[in-house]
Structures are given as structure tokens and as C-alpha cells.
Amino acid sequence: MKQRPAQVLRPASGRRRLAALAWGWLVGAGALASQPAPAWTTNGDAGTGAQIYLQGQGADGQPLAAERAHGLIARGREAACVQCHRSSGMGGAEGNVAVPPVQGALLAAPGQAPRRQQGRVAPGLQRAQADAERRPAYTLATLQRALTQGLSASGQRLDPLMPRYALNDADVRHLAAYLDTLVLGQAPGVERSTLHLASIDTADTPPEVREATTGLLQRCLTERSPPAPATDAQPPRWVLHRWTLGSDPAQWQAELARLEQAQPVFALLSGTTGPTGRGAWQSIQRHCEQTGLPCILPHTAAVDDRLGTHWSFHFSRGVSLEASAVAQWLADNPPVPGWAAVQQVVQTSSEPARLAAERLTEHLREQGMVTITTELTAEPGGAPPRANLPLALWMDAPALQAYTRHHAPPPGAAPVFVSGELLDLDLGMLPPAWRPRVLMTYPYDPAERHLPRLALNAGPRLAALGLEPASQPALLRLQAHSATVCEMAVNALSRMGGRANREYFLELIESAEDAAIATAYPRFTLGPEQRHGSKGLWLVRWDPAHPQRLQPVSGWITPP
Ligand code: HEC
To answer: Is the shortest distance between the CB of 163 and ligand 1 below 6 Å?
Structure first.
């Protein structure tokens, strides 16, 4: 696995600039399908080059030293090219300095003027662009001169933000060999005239949920796609395939592999599983990470924050976030003097419920607490609540309804935790005796704020697609979040144009959060290597004085 360095150099304005820059530079650059073969022969070792580029480590295994502006020296990871030129090699911007792309094929060819019909380049970015556009092709010798002396192929002095390195000609050949592996316009699912994408649903997803998710996305992408290109210079059109998997998550990886073999796709957009649309997802995430497939914002609650997430973006950490927030809240608010255990009842047929229980057990163990876990197998069975122990009920709404009808709440005053993710925020089924005892994790803005906002923001987009905003809150959230995924994908895909590259796509999604204006979350932010948009939640409880409203009992909890 590649090491992902921390991004240390990006000032606050960087990403907005990057968006503007990437746009001005790249839109219309569809011609990359015909990317020329590199014009230099490097005889270098791309693996050693990768070490230099990604980790700032020389061929001898020593950290590279780079001289920055004002004689400052950066070393190792901080000096690595990837910090500025990014994993894709597409660069972007640091502050108001443009960072040019450095793919081998682009460096070994004369600089090209972009087509700037969009005209959105910030004024401060003009100079840096001009040289990278007009310079002659680099040779290995002029590349070495650029890296060691800061002179471009045209002899112009490069901006001092581009460090000066002590690299010998062998290092430069390794580096160039690695830069040759950064290729644009060639990736699975990318054809000259069509870029293929897919969105997943499952056999047990009800039709209205599918319509609100994969159906909406397909309409939206079709509506917003560029037209079928008439020439090679125009960007490809986008086609979204709807893939319906079976209802057994254990089969999904194999099913996906078959689907991808029949029709390779560039990325998975969103995705919806199970009866609520927010069910199991971990095997799909594993598939995305193992095969390097971008998987952008599925609706699932089953987010395992222990899994690697370079290729997967999520709206939040889902039930993993709930588990860590409950553990943190218990640590800060001891429910009963001298307590040392939490009872959990888990609906084992639900992947998100299992995951939540597992994560809570781990967090409490770290705090020296024990969990007593029982499985909810035959409804409405399950272990009865024990006296004076905090109780966590990880189950969906029908199971919670059955459980709370069958059992009285636990004797004593300890709290009962239920999952807003699994219940889709619905506490309506609780019998009166349970209501005052229950605390629910609540990952969104309060309903009286987020529902009108979603209807307002997503409404016009839905109308444009011939759809009505759903009256049922959970469905409205699915619609709005699907519209958000569409908006972010359109933003990133338009900026990518013909320069299809999966790493580049991830970088563009990271900077497309501005397009996420219709989510139920109070804040939604992404950034370099940030993969979870919303970072926190509230704990809320039933308020007898305002039965229509849930009352927060905590601040916004953002566990590490
Ligand atoms: C701190 C940020 C930063 C780091 C780290 C960095 N660069 Fe750069 N690089 C830049 C900037 C900014 C420019 C544009 C300078 C200008 O146009 O005046 C640039 C320009 C270049 C150019 C010239 C491109 C052209 O078309 O003329 C090459 C080649 C290059 N960098 C390669 C590298 C390599 C290889 C590394 C790692 C060994 C690296 N850079 C590390 C910021 C950086």
C-alpha cells in the first residue's frame, strides 16, 4: 500500500483556487485520449522514483533535502513532490501559485496552451501558467536543472515555491520513469467517447428507495452529461449503469467482479443497499480499496472506520461514529457511580448493528469497561434489560419496536442508547415507559432545520429531473443526498474532462465539497485525504413538553 503523506502546505484559500485553476487549465482538454508516448528514454527504476516522489526518500534510502524559499530546508516526506504535485501528478495550486502537472508525457512534450473558454483563472495565477504552457519539451538534463537549480526548460526561473533538490542524474532518471507511469486518459471504464460509471442497489431495496437514489442519479447524470463528442478534442459523455446486486452481502464482491468484467467502470457513485437503502456496505468498500475503484458517498450507515479509505468517500463515519460518541459521552458522564459495564443487544442480521456493537465494545475496552453483549435472534426475544447498567440497543425500527413492547425498560436510572442511523431518526414506535430513558445518536441538523432546507435546496433540482421531493423524511434525505452526489460528481467530472485518472478524480472530489449544498448535516467538509464529510453528532432525547421535537442532551460530539 502506498503511504499517504500528510498535506502540510495547503493554505486556507488553496482549494478554492485549485478549483478555479484546474477548471481554467483543463476544461476542453479532451485530447488526452491521444496522449503521446514519453519522448525520453529514462532507463530508470519507477519504484525508486515512486519513493522519491511519494515519500521524499532518495535512492539511498535517506530523506531528501529540499531548499525552499528563504533558504528553509524541508526533509523527507515534507519535501516529497506529492505534497504539491499530488498523487495524480496534476498539481493544482498552493496559495496563489499554480502547481503545473508533471506527468512524463506532458513534461517530455512542449508546453501546451489550455483552451480557456471558461475564463475562470484567478489573476495571480497567470505568470506561472504562461511558462509551463510555452516552454519547450524537457529533456532529462533540463529536468535535472529544474529540480536542482530551479530553471524551467525555457530557462525561466521557477517560482521559489518549487524547491531545489540535491538530485543526481540517476535519481532524475528514476523520477522520470515514475512520472511516465502517471497516465491520463486511460483507466478502466474510459473509452474515447464514453466514460462509464455505476451505482449499486440490491434486490431487497424497495422501488421507491431505488427511485430516490440510483434512479435519481441516473437521470441527473444523463441530463448533465456533455453531449456525445463529435471530435477527439471533446470530453467524453457520461453513462451511469445501475447495478442491482443480490440480497446476500457475502456474494457482493464476486458479483461486482463479474459486473466489472462485463462492463468496466471508472467509479461507483453513491449506492444503496437493503430495505432502508442504508444497509451493509463493508464488502463493497473492501472491493473499492483492493481494486483502486473510486467509491463516492454511498448512503450506508455501515461505515467501518478501521478499514482503509483512500478510494472511498462517506457522508460520515456512520455507526462507527455513533459508537465512539457513545463511549466518549459515557466517559464524560458516568451514568451510575462505580459503573463498569454496558449491556448491548444486537440485531445480528444487520451489518451496521453488528459493526456498531463491535466498535462500542472496542472503545469501552480501551476505557477499561466491559460490554455484556447478547444477540437479538428470534424477535421479539433477546435478553431482558439488566438493572443499573447502561443499555445499547443496536437494531432497526421494527426490531426496536418488538423489543420495547416485549420488555420493560431497565430498572434504575441508567440511560438506554439507540442509533439514529439504524432508526432513520424515528422514535415514534417507543412505548411511553421507554421514552424518558432513551438517548438517540443524531447525526444531522435538527429535523426542523434540515428538512425544510433539503426541500428548498434539492427541490428545484428534483423538479428539473421531473421528480417531487418525498414527504417521508428518510426518503427526502436519500433524494437530497443523491442529488448532492450528482452535483459533486458533475463538478469533478467536468473539471476532469478527457484527462481521466482515478487519483485525479479523487483529488477533484476532495475539492468539490462546495457542490454539497443539499445535505442533512450541519457541516460537510472534505480535503486532502479527508474521506468523511461530517464529523460529529448530537445525543437527543424525547421531550414530553414538545413531543414533535427531540431535545439535545449533549453538544456536538466529534470523537477523534
Ligand atoms: C512545495 C511545493 C512543491 C514541491 C514539494 C515540488 N514542486 Fe515542483 N513545482 C512547484 C511549483 C509551484 C511549480 C511551478 C513553478 C513556476 O511555474 O514558476 C513547480 C514546477 C515543477 C516543474 C516544472 C514544470 C513545467 O512544466 O515547467 C517540474 C518538472 C516539477 N515541479 C517537478 C517536481 C518534482 C519532481 C518534485 C519532487 C522532487 C517537485 N516538483 C516538488 C511546487 C512544488
So the answer is: yes
Over residues 524-538, mean pLDDT? 94
Distance 311 CA to ligand 1 centre (A): 25
Digit-coded pLDDT (tens) for 416-451: 999 999 999 989 899 999 999 999 999 999 999 999
Pocket test for ligand 1, best of 48, 67, 85 (most atoms within 8 A of CB): 85
Are residues 302 and 351 in contact, defined by beta-carbon separation less than 8 angstroms?
A: yes
Residue with cell 532529462: 140
Q: Tell me, using a 6 A CB cutoff, whether residue 135 lines ligand 1.
A: yes
- The residue written with cell numbers 530553471 in the block is 151
Cell of 90: 496534476
Query: Could you tell me which residue, 413 or 251, shows the higher pLDDT?
Result: 251
Task: Give the Å distance between the CA of 423 and the centre of ligand 1.
Answer: 50
For residue 152 and ligand 1, the question of a CB distance below 6 A is answered with yes
Of 116, 86, 107, 88, nearest in space to 20 by CA: 116
Instruction: Evaluate whether 350 touches 279 at the Cβ level (below 8 Å).
Output: yes
The best mutation among 121, 129, 162, 175 to test binding of ligand 1, ranked by most ligand atoms within 8 Å of the C-beta, falls on 162
* pLDDT of amino acid 544: 80
Question: Is-contact 218 242, C-beta < 8 A?
Answer: yes
**C-alpha dist (Å) from residue 2 to 91, 187, 289, 310:** 18, 19, 12, 10
Instruction: For cell 450506508, name the residue.
Output: 300
